[in-house]
């Protein structure tokens, strides 16, 4: 395929935010996760752990705890509010003041009828879950000292509350405290410090399990209120717990300790809680844990979501049994002005516009060329308002820039003459354009596409003098899900959108109407693009399958069918990060360039249907290894045929994290 | 006239269960004329430097696996190729220590042999007759392999020959008593197939050899009735049509070897050049029955040119590389250098004098002087030998040095008054001698208490048997018991200096545990204690760096010392436990071992970390931005 000039960009200082809380919905197999910046993410564990939805954060919103009630998602935070989220429009649905000071925890009963929250002022407040909202019902007896953690007994009649130095058991009906379990403080110097019961779990056999700041996991008899067993897990805090017949404790050292309810000897019938395994997948505090049927899910200060399968629950040596670390979002934060050689980086609080450097040298493969002109940061654009940026786009010509928050869309006109740049906000945007889930410019930069509610797309015509609302494209399926991928064809004829229902709609931009809907595949598309010459739509899904759909014939292409028949190489399918971007090589129309976090590759459509080759993956050529590229955020092709590779080494991210509680010592 | 020179032992044979098998599967030339790769019939491949009689490397497949084809050396890539369990091709380099970690590929059909000749590519011959170049086979190991041979047809012998820049694979097959010969060019896929004429009913060729001369491939094959035939095949022969009838292969009887009564069992004939054939396993015409000879025959004049009796059983195996014959017999594999000068009738009959080389002149000269060696006084012998040694380069002298030493030794043995220590030392110094050439030399030196010579022999002979090593050891210990000059070691133990000087060489000789152990058991407990004390003393001294290279002596390594301690304890442990004098010593050793174990376990702990350090590659400093050129294939 020949030589490429590659711009290797490592100046995108993307910094993911620490994981704060997690909640797993075992019915829908969705994991909700909140980060320190207030952002919420929903992962579909049934679909290759794909990050399905992202709700951007907001200044001042810190989510301390998350809770699913059936398909509804609630959060509570130190701002004293309870929030329910609109998962279709990716925004908070409503926010309710709890009037109890900062809220430390939120928890629903197993019936899903009530929510309990634990407040700084020592109250446990019970809310009734209604159809559209929640309603405050009553306070349980007010205690001295804050309520840090809560757990309902599965019957719904009792609630255990973790506090400072103690655990209280309440009767949920009467609201009176029935038991007080005193938690011992740490020894030595920490004797004088109050011990914080970071988490409690109330099991159906009335066992209460607690994790605290003195490093203990304790097992209590909830009927008598007596201590059964103490496990000293760490010198530091035990920060999180999750229950089942197996129980997890995360520590400040980055370890996750598993306990299981088993008989300690074979012939013994009495079961007890035995410490069984220790996982060390984090460098920093484990702040959030979830226990799925087959895996331990953990996250914390080091920003990575780790899924560690329990080997007795999964088949060994399968894709399911592999450890997964999800470090980067499953969508692009970089947009590339192909014609102008510009890059737009999206942070949650601002945007950066860069112009790539230049080199006039030539070299042989492996050479670094002298950089004649250094890359230059042209603009740093701070967002307005409290809401974080949810999407952004740069037009291919570099003349337009747009971003959206949940409350507004902003469009800017950029004028750059080689040395000076001017930026002008487009003042009057059509009223219909209030917020967008995805933004995208047409290849000739004459149109802006913005996806909004119910997967509809608003088309805005751009010109020097004005920008005008043209049309709204709507799918016929009646879906309510948001669009997470949008791609316009090079020739300006087509626009394809994909939503969380796994639907892919293609619109004709000439006729301004729906052209076709690709047959729905069970896995969510993670990247797609329309081929510039053949007008075939190439899609890659979360389960790594690749499809090609002819927009002219409205059917899967011959190649795609052959590929499905033949099956993809097992090494390809075993990859654990989704393809986040794909593009075509104008010099060879049969070449598709794809990338995920760890590699970029070229798929040769001519090769792929020949017999499997031993040395390459069915014609996929993995490129990254040879050039030590790692942790890719974007791989794109500029108009001058040079490649842009945006890297963000995880080591750089780790170096910006605060020091962990316990520094790793040499050789231990 | 062709000549066989004094041979030497390359290695011992590990006898397989069945006695008719030499235990050697194949010998192949390696990088140069002085290296060979020996594959035994079970699991291991050993690389030898022939002139040093020394193994340089050895590789073994796992227990339960078997090497089914002898390893060959690919001189292009400097790699070895072998096949285990018929289907697994293994490729490795000299620096690969563990064979199992090296490259392997499983092919779809059973492999008969891998052939490699310098200047040619390695070729794989499958049992069903298909031929593949190794490279193309490895690029797709599971490729289907066609069947060339008919049913019930099986390969009996194969080789490869380079002819006119083309490589030929030649193999002979048998099918229901009929014999066929195939010539195949792997690059062209062209096959020539010939039918061998039938010999007496029921006789199959015993051995084949092929060579390329004058645009033809010459085949030489031997039948059990002693008939040696030659067939000449043109390399430009007609390609075989599919299913075509095999052409009859014309042959001519080169000569009929005398076989005595009955038929030959294990025998082999090997063409050395156009006029000479080496034959093994055929009785010598003038020697009695029951003796096995290696002979060189001149085929032009049908004369026997040289003969050498081979002790022990002959297996009918014979290889020749760069003027050396390799022949397994009895319990060893011998290397016998030979020479086949251009023959004329006169030389064949031993009547050509003027054509002799200088070396031969000297040989005659020494032969003439045999009388001197038998009768002359010590001084004269010494002068004579000095003269001989000063005259020319040692390599050519090798056979005569052996002869000379043997005769001097046998004279000394016979005549107690005669002993020439200086001369013998001089001969040993030439490094042309080894123990198997002159087995009595070391024992003679011991007997005459010539410890200097003993030491020299131990140092320079690569093949001192364990029994002799042990005899030396015993003598050293015994004499040290008598002498009173002592050194005092760190613990205050008293050690005789005599032993101190000579013992070092004993520790450095090559040995095999199993053979040494029974001899060590002969030592008395007192001797064992003394020796152990000495070893402990050495170990303590040597483990402090300052003591290496004492008095300019070669010093044993710590591992060698430790191995001896272990062996000695193995041989005498029960006796030592019951000997009160040994108690302190044993306790000392135990304490010492314990501290060492602790040290090593500590070292073991950090090994992993240190290895990691090594793995850290110097990463190219990557800045925030760079423009690079990459090649996407």
UniProtKB/TrEMBL annotation, chain A:
A single GO cellular-component term on record: 90S preribosome
Top-rank taxon: Eukaryota
GO biological process: maturation of SSU-rRNA from tricistronic rRNA transcript (SSU-rRNA, 5.8S rRNA, LSU-rRNA)
Pfam hit, one: WD40
SMART domains referenced in this protein's UniProt entry, alphabetically: WD40
Gene Ontology MF terms in the entry: RNA binding
Name of the molecule in the record: UTP4 small subunit processome component
Lineage, opening ranks: Eukaryota, Metazoa, Chordata, Craniata, Vertebrata
From TrEMBL, chain B:
GO molecular function, one term: RNA binding
Predominant subcellular localization, coarse grouping: nucleus
Leader sequence segment: none
Keyword entries, A-Z: Activator, Nucleus, rRNA processing, Transcription, Transcription regulation
Keyword Transcription regulation attached: yes
Biological processes per GO annotation: maturation of SSU-rRNA
Gene Ontology, cellular component aspect: nucleolus
Pfam families, per database record: Nol11_C (PF20998), NOL11_N (PF08168)
Superkingdom per UniProt: Eukaryota
UniProt name for this protein: Nucleolar protein 11
Origin organism lineage: Eukaryota, Metazoa, Chordata, Craniata, Vertebrata
């Amino acid at each position: 395929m020949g030589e490429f000039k590659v711009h290797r960009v490592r100046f995108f200082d993307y910094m993911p935010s620490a994981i704060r809380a997690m909640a797993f919905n075992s019915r829908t197999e969705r994991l909700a996760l909140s980060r320190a910046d207030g952002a919420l993410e929903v992962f579909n564990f049934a679909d290759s752990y794909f990050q399905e939805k992202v709700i951007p954060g907001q200044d001042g919103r810190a989510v301390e705890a998350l809770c699913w009630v059936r398909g509804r998602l609630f959060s509570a935070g130190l701002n004293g509010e309870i929030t329910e989220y609109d998962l279709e429009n990716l925004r908070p649905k409503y926010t309710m003041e709890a009037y109890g000071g900062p809220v430390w925890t939120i928890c629903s009963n197993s019936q899903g009828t009530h929510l309990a929250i634990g407040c700084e002022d020592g109250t446990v407040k019970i809310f009734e879950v209604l159809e559209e909202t929640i309603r405050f019902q009553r306070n349980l007896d007010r205690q001295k000292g804050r309520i840090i953690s809560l757990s309902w007994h599965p019957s719904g009649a009792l609630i255990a509350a973790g506090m400072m130095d103690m655990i209280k058991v309440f009767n949920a009906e009467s609201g009176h405290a029935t038991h007080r379990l005193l938690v011992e403080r740490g020894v030595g110097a920490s004797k004088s410090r109050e011990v914080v019961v970071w988490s409690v779990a109330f099991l159906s056999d009335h066992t209460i399990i607690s994790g605290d700041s003195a490093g203990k996991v304790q097992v209590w008899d909830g009927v008598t209120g007596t201590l059964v067993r103490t496990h000293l897990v760490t010198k530091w805090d035990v920060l999180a717990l999750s229950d089942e017949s197996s129980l997890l404790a995360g520590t400040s050292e980055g370890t996750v300790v598993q306990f299981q309810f088993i008989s300690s000897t074979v012939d013994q019938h009495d079961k007890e809680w035995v410490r069984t395994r220790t996982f060390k997948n984090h460098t920093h505090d484990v702040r959030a844990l979830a226990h799925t049927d087959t895996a331990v899910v953990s996250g914390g200060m080091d920003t990575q979501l780790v899924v560690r399968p329990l080997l007795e629950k999964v088949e060994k040596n399968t894709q399911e049994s592999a450890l997964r670390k999800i470090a980067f979002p499953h969508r692009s934060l970089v947009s590339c002005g192909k014609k102008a050689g510009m890059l737009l980086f999206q942070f949650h609080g601002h945007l950066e516009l860069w112009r790539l450097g230049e080199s006039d040298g030539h070299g042989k493969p492996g050479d670094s060329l002298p950089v004649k002109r250094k890359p230059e940061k042209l603009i740093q654009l701070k967002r307005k308002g409290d809401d974080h940026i949810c999407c952004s786009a740069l037009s291919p010509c570099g003349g337009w820039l747009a971003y959206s928050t949940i409350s507004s869309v902003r469009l800017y006109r950029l004028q750059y003459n080689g040395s000076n740049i001017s930026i002008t906000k487009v003042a009057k945007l059509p009223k219909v354009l209030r917020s967008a889930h995805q933004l995208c410019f047409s290849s000739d930069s004459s149109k802006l596409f913005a996806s909004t509610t119910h997967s509809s797309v608003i088309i805005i015509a751009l010109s020097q003098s004005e920008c005008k609302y043209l049309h709204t494209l709507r799918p016929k399926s009646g879906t309510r899900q948001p669009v997470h991928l949008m791609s316009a064809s090079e020739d300006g004829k087509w626009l394809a959108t994909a939503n969380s229902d796994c639907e892919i709609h293609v619109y004709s931009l000439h006729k301004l109407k729906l052209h076709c809907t690709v047959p729905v595949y069970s896995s969510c598309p993670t990247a797609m693009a329309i081929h510039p010459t053949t007008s075939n739509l190439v899609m890659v899904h979360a389960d790594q399958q690749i499809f090609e759909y002819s927009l002219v014939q409205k059917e899967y292409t011959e190649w795609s069918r052959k590929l499905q028949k033949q099956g993809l190489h097992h090494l390809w399918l075993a990859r654990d990060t989704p393809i986040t971007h794909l593009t075509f090589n104008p010099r060879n129309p049969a070449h598709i360039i794809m990338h995920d976090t760890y590699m970029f590759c070229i798929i040769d459509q001519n090769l792929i249907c020949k017999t499997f080759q031993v040395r390459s993956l069915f014609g996929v050529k993995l490129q990254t290894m040879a050039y030590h590229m790692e942790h890719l955020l974007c791989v794109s092709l500029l108009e001058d045929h040079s490649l842009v590779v945006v890297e963000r080494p995880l080591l750089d991210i780790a170096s910006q994290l605060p020091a962990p509680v316990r520094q790793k010592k040499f050789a231990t | 006239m062709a000549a066989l020179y004094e041979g030497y032992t390359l290695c011992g044979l590990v006898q397989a269960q069945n006695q008719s098998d030499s235990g050697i599967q194949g010998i192949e030339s390696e990088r140069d004329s002085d290296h060979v790769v020996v594959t035994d019939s079970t699991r291991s491949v050993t690389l030898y430097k022939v002139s040093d009689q020394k193994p340089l490397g050895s590789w073994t497949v796992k227990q339960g696996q078997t090497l089914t084809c002898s390893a060959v050396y690919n001189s292009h890539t400097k790699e070895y190729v072998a096949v285990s369990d018929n289907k697994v091709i293994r490729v490795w380099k000299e620096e690969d220590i563990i064979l199992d970690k090296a490259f392997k590929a499983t092919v779809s059909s059973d492999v008969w042999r891998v052939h490699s000749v310098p200047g040619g590519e390695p070729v794989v011959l499958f049992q069903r007759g298909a031929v593949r170049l190794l490279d193309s086979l490895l690029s797709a190991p599971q490729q289907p392999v066609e069947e060339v041979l008919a049913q019930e047809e099986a390969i009996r012998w194969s080789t490869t020959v380079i002819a006119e820049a083309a490589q030929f694979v030649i193999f002979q097959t048998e099918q229901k008593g009929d014999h066929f010969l195939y010539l195949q060019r792997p690059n062209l896929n062209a096959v020539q197939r010939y039918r061998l004429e039938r010999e007496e009913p029921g006789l199959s060729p015993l051995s084949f050899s092929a060579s390329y001369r004058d645009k033809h491939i010459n085949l030489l094959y031997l039948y059990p009735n002693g008939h040696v035939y030659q067939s000449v095949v043109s390399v430009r022969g007609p390609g075989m049509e599919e299913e075509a009838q095999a052409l009859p292969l014309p042959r001519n009887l080169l000569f009929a070897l005398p076989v005595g009564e009955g038929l030959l069992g294990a025998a082999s004939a090997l063409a050395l050049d156009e006029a000479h054939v080496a034959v093994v396993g055929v009785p010598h015409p003038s020697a009695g029955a029951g003796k096995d000879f290696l002979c060189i025959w001149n085929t032009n004049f049908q004369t026997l040119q040289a003969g050498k009796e081979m002790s022990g059983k002959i297996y009918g195996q014979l290889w020749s590389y760069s003027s050396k014959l390799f022949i397994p017999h009895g319990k060893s594999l011998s290397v016998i250098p030979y020479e086949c000068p251009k023959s004329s009738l006169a030389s064949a009959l031993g009547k050509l004098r003027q054509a002799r080389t200088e070396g031969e002149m000297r040989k005659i000269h020494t032969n003439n002087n045999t009388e001197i060696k038998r009768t002359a006084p010590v001084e004269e012998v010494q002068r004579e030998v000095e003269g001989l040694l000063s005259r020319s380069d040692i390599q050519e002298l090798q056979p005569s040095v052996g002869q000379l030493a043997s005769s001097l030794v046998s004279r000394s043995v016979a005549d107690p008054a005669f002993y020439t220590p200086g001369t013998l030392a001089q001969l040993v110094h030439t490094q042309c001698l080894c123990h198997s050439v002159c087995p009595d030399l070391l024992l003679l030196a011991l007997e005459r208490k010539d410890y200097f010579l003993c030491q020299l022999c131990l140092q320079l002979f690569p093949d001192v048997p364990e029994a002799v090593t042990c005899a030396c050891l015993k003598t050293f210990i015994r004499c040290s018991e008598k002498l009173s000059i002592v050194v005092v070691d760190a613990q205050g133990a008293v050690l005789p200096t005599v032993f101190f000087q000579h013992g070092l060489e004993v520790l450095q000789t090559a040995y095999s545990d199993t053979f040494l152990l029974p001899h060590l058991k002969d030592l008395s407990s007192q001797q064992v204690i003394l020796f152990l004390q000495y070893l402990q003393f050495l170990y303590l001294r040597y483990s402090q760096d300052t003591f290496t290279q004492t008095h300019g002596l070669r010093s044993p390594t710590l591992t060698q010392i430790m191995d001896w301690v272990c062996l000695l304890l193995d041989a005498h442990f029960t006796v030592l436990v019951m000997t009160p004098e040994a108690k302190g010593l044993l306790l000392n050793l135990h304490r010492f071992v314990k501290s060492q174990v602790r040290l090593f376990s500590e070292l073991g702990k950090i090994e992993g970390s240190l290895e990691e350090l090594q793995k850290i590659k110097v990463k190219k400093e990557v800045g925030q931005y760079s423009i690079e050129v990459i090649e996407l294939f």
